[in-house]
Amino acid sequence: MEDVVIVGAGIAGLATAVALKKVGVRALVLERSEGLRAAGAALTLFPNAWYALDALGISHKLTSIYTPFYKGYVTDVKTKAIQEVSYGASKGSGDEQRAVNRKVLLQVLAAELPSNTIRFSSKLTSIETQVEQGSSICILALEDGTIIKSKVVIGCDGVHSRIARWLGLDSPVDSGRSAIRGLAVYPQGHGLNHEFQQFVDVSKRAGFVPLNDKEIYWFFLCKAPPKDADIGVDPSLLLRDVVDNLAKDFPPLYLDVVGQSDLSALTWAPLIFRYPWDVILGNLTRAHITVAGDAMHPMTPDLGQGGCSALEDAVVLARHIGSSISKLGKLETCGVGFALERYARERRWRAAMLITASFLSGWVSQDGSSWWMRFLRDVFYNFILGKAFSASRYDCGKLC
């Protein structure tokens, strides 16, 4: 019997477990893999993520490693025109953004938890609910035959979440675009400025940002998937396809970064998202079961808010669940359902807004080469992008 079971040990799952620990609730995290998974190489964390990490008490462990960036440049591959993009933060303001290694973030989160919190190689096969002594209890069956009863279940099991399907949420949809992500390593240092560089072409968008003096995170977004993507991609073949085919017309600087890639960190994936109206109108919680992170709000990466919003979810969810703890320090099932409903109300509209803004940002940045699309891109980067990033300064609050 557990108080809380979290399905999935990604960013949302581990952050939620840390947040619950901060409010005095123990959670068991079930992860189907044999260890921590870090697909995606790295991610950019904007101010809203750092506010959440502050609430979790671990931001200092990452800010001491990764340097913030304050501006970037967008280069049109065809015309060579360059636009400067300001991210609206000044040095030392606290409203800063940093790119971090995804695996390091997971390790920092996992280090905050007791050693027996995460149970690896634990694949969920079924979930059901029943009423015991007047309270709703969740029953989870694992592939190894284990049966776990829990007062609360939180699905943090990614874009193809089994928990989201159980709640009745519609499956995410394909955006029609793909992402290739990698990590370039320079043992002697790369010598580049700490700035976000992006390159835009017809139906293609790419970019890179340094993590530190020796590592650079890069990405390539396109409509056409890489060769043989349907049968799995060999990292070396994927890298060659980017350099020799997909990005052959991109600047030499970008191709040099791609050429320094660590093959073990190279990934390809289709970009999928959940329709925002499904988040607004769908069941985000039922019978002491809810979802967080990509399980709730998968979105395209065009505003870099996937991981950031998952960290927000963790803090908000733990704060509401913490309100159900009795004076004796026990999680009271009679109040948990109301706590999860309050969490869903607080997150529903913000998640839908981020999904919408991310999708529109990707459409404007990457689709079409007509004169009016180029004009729309100029307007977007010069006037709208800054307002879109204002959503990244959202403060999800503290934990008691």
UniProtKB/TrEMBL annotation:
Residues 3-355 form the FAD-binding domain. Keywords: Monooxygenase, Oxidoreductase. SUPFAM superfamilies: FAD/NAD(P)-binding domain. Belongs to the 3-hydroxybenzoate 6-hydroxylase family. This is Monooxygenase 2-like. It comes from Rhodamnia argentea. The lineage of its organism: Eukaryota, Viridiplantae, Streptophyta, Embryophyta, Tracheophyta. The gene is LOC115744029.
